[in-house]
Amino acid sequence: MTILCVRFQLPPTGEAALPGLLGLLEEFTPVVEALPPDAALADLRGAERYFGRDAVELASVIRVRALALYGVDCVIGAGPGRMLARMAMTDARPGLTRAVTEEESVDFLAEKPVGALPGVGTATARTLCEYGLDTLGRVAAAPLSTLQRLVGARVGRELREKAGGVDRGRVVPNAISRSLATERPFTRDELDADRHRRALLSAADELGARLRALDKVCGALALTVRYADRSSTTRTRTLKEPTAHSAALTRTAYGMYEALGLQRARVRSLSLRAESLGPAEQASHQLTFDPADEKLRRVEEVADRVRARFGPHAVMPGALAA
What we know:
The protein is 43% helix and 22% strand. By secondary structure, the chain is of the alpha+beta class. The strands form 2 sheets. It has a 5-stranded mixed beta sheet. Strands 6-9-7-8 form a 4-stranded antiparallel beta sheet, covered by helices on one side. The N and C termini lie far apart (50 Å).
């Protein structure tokens, strides 16, 4: 076991602590991949040799330091690769590290629902379940040709390998500064879909304003839904074109939310993250000849000038796209 997946149990407005917590992991290894808004992967192959401790022992040290320095507890999974580490983390509890060895991987995966595999979306899981392939054990035992007919040649091959415990993923170091995020916590676990949408509207409006203030555009948007049982779902969507336009961000956020198909879900918070940031002057904008879109962009320019003069709260969040 050389890979850790660490989820920091941040308070609802505590994402600002994430860069510092990533720095804590980098004290053990330079190979750290951020998984915003609250998690990270760390490859400890070199650290195990350097410190003379295995990954589970190092995980205990990381947990103690996070508590001592930031007051943040961790949920940690350990495995031979990134996929198994992430799935082990979902079974972990605060204070304990859930470790899955390469020898245990097949048995560990066999009874997991197919939707638990990272990268398997709702549509793919639904298709497989319709044919009785509702667990990873059944997927691993299915003929490759059957899977490829159902989900495609490449996806079918990768799915069968992963269900059988073949974990080819690698931890890719990245920079938290290449993204911007905002979170909308609810005062109580929220069931109302309309309130969910209003929170997304406000978050997308804020992200757009922050991007424009920095002269940046984003190429992708990530939505994280946190539930009452402390679990979460994250979806990422690449935008048709890099943008800082609040209306475009709102449409994308709504699309991801609706694709989740939440039915009376008890939601604790919603967060949006703008990813793949780049300079605004290098981005192109497809002309739509839509008077409503052009009007919104002009209104955004006026609102940005008002915010610059009177502060970020001078314009109510979501007012432009309402």
